[in-house]
Amino acid sequence: MTPFKHKTQVQIRFKDIDMMGHVNNANYITYFELARLTYFEALSEEGVKIDWVNEGVILAKIEMEYKQPILLTDKVFVYTWVSRLGSKSFDMSCTIVRVINGVEVEAAKGLAVIVCFNYKTNETIAVPELWKAKMVS
């Protein structure tokens, strides 16, 4: 499977910085969340119309491995892709990079387990076929 990769730029805000002068660890997960949202927006641009009530998602699990600090003045991007595709769930992986002297350096990597969910019936559903087609193209 060659996953659809997406790149999202993240704006570091002063409120993201902790007393040690770097981005607080909880914000890395927020950056990943932002990247997942823009990933789905990009899928919409690829012809996937998402009905979040009938074909929504739930975050079931999140993992983040921290490699190095992100600073207030850093230029930061998050790469996001589907790394596993199941029948009712999929894994989204991310790499958070900071640009140092023009080179992207990995600051963290993460994994989210996403379960497809119908909010009207309150039940899990199969990953929509149109999503699958775009996620692996």
Task: Describe the overall structure.
24% of the residues are buried. A hairpin with a 3-residue loop joins strand 3 and strand 4. The chain starts with 5 loop residues before the first strand and ends with a helix. It has a single domain, classed as Thiol Ester Dehydrase, Chain A (Roll). The chain contains two helices and six strands. The model has no long low-confidence stretch (mean pLDDT 92). Strands 1, 2, 3, 4, 5 and 6 form a six-stranded antiparallel β-sheet that branches. Helices cover 20% and strands 42% of the residues. The protein has 137 residues and is of the alpha+beta class. It is elongated and about 45 Å long.
Please give a handful of descriptors for the protein shown.
alpha+beta, Thiol Ester Dehydrase, Chain A, 6 strands, elongated
Radius of gyration: 16 Å
Largest sheet: 6 strands, antiparallel
Give the overall silhouette.
elongated
Derived structural class: alpha+beta
| Helix content estimate | 10-25%
What's the number of helices?
Answer: 2
Question: Can you tell me the CATH class?
Answer: Alpha Beta
Question: What is the CATH third-level topology name?
Answer: Thiol Ester Dehydrase, Chain A
The secondary-structure element order is EHEEEEEH
Tally of individual domains? 1
Mean pLDDT figure: 92
What is the CATH superfamily label? Answer: Hotdog Thioesterase
Which stretches are poorly predicted, pLDDT < 50 over at least 5 residues? Answer: none
**What's the end-to-end separation, in Å?**
8 Å
Per DSSP, what share of the residues sits in E-state strands of 2 or more residues?
A: 35-45%
Number of strands: 6
CATH architecture: Roll
